[in-house]
Amino acid sequence: MSEVLTPKAANGHGMSGDGIVRHPQWAVLKQAVEAIRPWQRKDGSIDFDAEGAPSQDDAVRTLDRVVDAVRQLSPRLPHDADYHQALVADLRRWADGGFGVPDFLDSLLAFQPAADRRDGLQHVVVFPMYTQNGNPDRNLEAVALRVVWPEWLAELERTRYDNALFVPITFEDFTPGYDTNSAVLFPETVAVREAPERWTWGAIFCDREAARFRAVTAAAVDTLGLELPQEAARLVADQELAQQTYTLWDMIHDRTHSHGDLPFDPFMIKQRAPFWMYGLEELRCDLTSFREAVKLQGEGHPMGLGVQYAILFDRLFRFPVTGARVRNYDGLGGQLLFAYLHKHDAVRWTDNTLHIDWERAPQVTNQLCAEIETLYRDGIDRPKLVHWFAAYDLVASHLSPHPGSVWAKGPDALDLSLPPRKLVDEVLPDEFPLSMFYEALGKKLREVIASTKGITGDGGLRSAA
Predict the structure, then answer these.
(1) Quick one: pLDDT at residue 270?
(2) pTM of the predicted protein model
(3) How would you classify residue 260: left for phi > 0, otherwise alpha for psi between -120 and 50, otherwise beta?
């Protein structure tokens, strides 16, 4: 097997000393933002008539503290000068308008982290926004973060996996909206008057993803009695290695949403679709990343093997038993991968011990990827509803549908005079329930998974094996 890369820590561009969160004004900014958040409605506005609401003068004074802190921090982050200037203007306009529904489009357009992806570059970001898999309300949030962009990753992006919008980041500190399961910073979550014609960046917190992976994988391995190869054990033990592994996985995954033989808008962001369509799209992107990692390993690249382990373990152990069972499309993809590997003897559960055929697993995983790609390629020539049924059949050939499912009975059981989006109402919240294996595993991992809420790279950090 290939040697695993020994990563280097970020170099700390953009801030002298120990980091921006050591600056006294970061604490001022964070406290002021946290004071404003409870006053806000779901849409981000402040209701001054609500019980416990501040006076408008108090709100203005608190916002002044935010503005002053941003102004004092900004010289330490010269690459964000235009953004911070626009941010102050947006904050002032929000106050001048009586703290109605916030509009931070100008500052959002001024923040362009993908244009300067230096390893270790720091940013201080303030926006009214919701956090995916976190807080659903558009509260004011403040986040101090650092870019992760090692030269080996930059080289792969330049020469092989072009993804000019992708920004891997780590947490420095954050307000309560990120004390959650959210691991992304996406511009589309920000409160704006109108959506731009196109988004120009997307950022993913690789430290949180890596820390969750390590905690849950370690618990699953112990629970299932799985024997790990040396390289896999090192990945689970080493936070820095794991988070750099996630930068490569995420970079390939992210670009895959727009690569391949795809129906228009494969992720169906602006459409209503059955949740298994989302599950297959996310799984397709992960399995494409896996296939590319196999190629990289074959070419001697030291990160290829780690990406394979990360995808397998996160998909098999964490995804199926994390989150609610209501339309859990990532959970569905994890169930499908396990069932497919199990059916093809790449994974076995015998004598209460999990066994993985480390030579066969990559072959079978790539085989599932090929089946999903065939589904997509054929889907180009199908009507939407026919494509949905074909996708359902692919999933149902490996996972048992709920006994009460109407969709499982086939087209004759549905009112096909309705438009496809209406037929989504007939999909059960848990159309493909957990297997007995995952029901038991979920109970055993429940506390560990719950403990990863708000985790960062500093939480539970262990030394490299």
Answers:
(1) 58
(2) 0.92
(3) left
